[in-house]
Amino acid sequence: MHVIHTLGNLIDEVAALTGEQRRILWFRGHRSLQWHVQPSIWRDYDRDDERNFTNRFCARAGTKHPAVPHYDDVASWLSLMQHYRLPTRLLDWSRSPLIALYFALEDYIYNPQVSFEDSVIWVLDPHALNQHEIHKAITPSLDAKTCHEMVAAAFTDKYTAEPKVLAVMATETDMRMSVQQACFTIHSFDGPLETHTTYKTFLTAMCIPSDAVQAMARAIDLCGFRKGDIFPDLDHLADELKGISPPRRRFGKP
Fold first, then answer.
1. Res 251 pLDDT > 60
2. How far apart are CA 125 and CA 167, in angstroms?
């Protein structure tokens, strides 16, 4: 496991992992080193729950969203569900290590009461993963035919996708995905990715020790990585402004 204490350490480690061949890498930040690399649907639910979520979401979304996907466009539906934080078999990654660092340390920027613990940035070689899983060193789009069976299995038991994990490019449909340089892994394998039999060939951990997280959180904030920009909508802009300017008046006193 790599250990990083500063932004400079992070850049050096990423440069070393990328190498002269400019190896493509994706990144995911976790506030806790103890958290698994695993989609939310497999942490807390089973396959019956998943199909209930997806079908009920599709049935009720039309009156609540201005432009829902076509009924059979399961990839767009799954992406929309992930966007609105429904538990899905998708796991979010970023092509930017600094975006991943922001997500690992965000709580330390806006919530000073959070207790310090070791954080982590997971580094994925998507081409190495796909070479193992589908024998092709490519990253298809989420809506590609290569992915259809794995995605459709989230909606119906007609498909029984074999247990595997596939790295895919997100089809950018909103500003948030663009800003966050979003990409996904699709998981029909329901265990943590770091328990995969060959995970060491495509997955690396970079630990941020608990005594370094506060300084690194301050550094990523100073570099302009802030909630209102990472999530470009008015709700998160308001949250950012409230977070950096806590109330000065207490109990109604001026």
1. no
2. 9
